[in-house]
Design brief:
Strands 1, 2, 3, 5, 6, 8 and 9 form a 7-stranded antiparallel sheet that branches. The chain has a single domain, classed as Immunoglobulin-like, CATH 2.60.40. The protein has about 200 residues and is mainly beta. The protein is globular. The N terminus is likely disordered. It is built from 2 helices and 11 strands, in the order αββββββαβββββ. The longest helix has 19 residues. Strand 5 and strand 6 form a beta hairpin.
């Protein structure tokens, strides 16, 4: 019976070194955190109105589009406010695209306050609603997560719209921006929604 000889082929050490480097690099990439400025998906914008000097519950109105850029239309609550009243207004943002992993984006906006600002647009202009900022970022500029709302006389105009726009990296020092004028704000729009509004005498 013939003896069968087996030859073992040995690869150069440099080949093993390259292989190990690739493995460690792949693991490192998997563990890398997301970029700090990665765009967030915002599926829910909630406006919470608390009537001042009143015991009545807060009024919560939502704009919600859980499928994001999908075919489904957003579901939008109609805002009901009383004339001759004052409210505090807080804005909440969420990503509810995954019901098992709802993400609160409000805290992220607050943490990155110097890079964000909300703008509110009342239409028509005769709709007597005045919104002023009641918060500020680390530089003393407004963010718009907390606000004061004064509702005056309904007059002949009792319906209209309230637009809410969140800008990323706006020019907060530009003319009018700190007072809520979006004209010179520039920056990128993170979310822009519109609510219908009814005033009750």
């Amino acid at each position: 019976m013939k003896n069968m000889n087996f030859r073992l082929f040995r690869l150069p050490v440099t080949v093993y070194a390259i292989a190990l480097t690739l493995v460690f690099q792949a693991c490192k990439n998997d563990d890398d955190p997301k970029p700090a400025n990665e765009e967030e998906l915002i599926t829910t914008v909630a406006l919470v109105f608390q009537k001042l000097e009143s015991d009545e519950p807060a009024r919560r109105f939502e704009w919600k589009d859980v499928d994001g850029t999908g075919a489904g239309a957003p579901v939008i609550d109609e805002i009901e406010l009383d004339a001759h009243a004052a409210y505090s207004l807080s804005v909440e943002l969420k990503d509810e695209s995954n019901p098992n992993d709802v993400e609160d984006i409000t805290s992220e906006i607050e943490e990155e306050g110097t890079e964000h600002q909300f703008f509110f647009t009342v239409n028509p202009g005769d709709l007597d609603i005045d919104i002023t900022y009641n918060d500020e970022d680390a530089d003393g500029k407004p963010i718009g997560l907390i606000n004061h709302v004064a509702v005056g006389h309904a007059h002949d105009v009792v319906t209209g719209t309230l637009g809410v726009t969140l800008r990323h990296k706006p020019k907060k020092d530009a003319a009018g921006v700190a007072n809520g004028d979006i004209t010179n704000a520039a920056g990128d729009t993170d979310i822009e929604v519109v609510f219908n509004v009814n005033l009750n005498e």
